[in-house]
Predict the structure.
Amino acid sequence: MSHPTDFNDRMLSLGLARVSEAAAIASAKLIGRGDEKAADQAAVNAMRDQLNMLDIAGVVVIGEGERDEAPMLYIGEEVGTGEGPAVDIALDPLEGTTLTAKDMPNALTVIAMGPRGSMLHAPDTYMEKLAIGPGYPEGIVTLDMDPATRVSALANAKRCQPSDITVCILERPRHEQMIEEVRGTGAAIRLITDGDVAGVMHCAEPDVTGIDMYMGRGGAPEGVLAAAALKCMGGQMFGQLVFRNDDERARAAKTGITDLDRIYSRDEMVTKDVIFSATGVTNGSILNGIKREVGWLTVETLLMRSKTGSVRKMVYRNPSR
């Protein structure tokens, strides 16, 4: 039997949903158990097994670190049957391992897929990120602006006061000055302890989540995943790699990045149409977490295609074992 070589996002999307669902279900027994590594490994194993059932020639471009650092789903690992379209895969088998271990909100399993060469091969460094939702003129906010100016610019575009804006920021010591500047405008801040892919996604549905903007420094791989989500949901995002030492600059060079100061837009991080799937592990603003019933597990998945702009929420009920 021959297999198509073109990226058929419609046919592949349901298979991708099964991948994120399997990872979430595998982590269910470890929610609230305090073991981050075990929860992550369970999700990794399940995601890898499901990916290898898909008729794709996949390469992990955003994964669990370098080959020597991660035994499963490392950057450069080949997945799938090897028959079918050549695709790039960006994934986080458990976005929010600490959230899962402590049974805190917004833990997700996340994966995106696109044609080969469609995603920025971001090194495992930091990225300065800025995101807003859809419906605004291009460039209404930029990374070149200070945090207070971003809030004022978005408030003007939204025709409201800065005090009506809510900004999502990762709670880290490195963001103390940013937090002070944002609060100085009168804007509200929703601090999150982990999970900045979900933090960026919140911007795409401000009426649901109450979040208007995301800003701050987090992992570069998660930045590409977030850009893939916004490419499907709508919204603007900008990212700039941040290097702390020569080793991190060498990692960038290894992935083919030559302009170390470049600011990437959403469509420069994800250049072609992609599909994106996220499944809730713990309850959150975007997805319900895993629901345990006697003999059953119920999970909720967000499945999106940038080509059509389709956004599906699906509930999957599976016998527990």
Notes: The two ends are 35 Å apart (CA to CA). Residues 9-27 form the longest helix (19 residues). The longest strand covers residues 86-95.
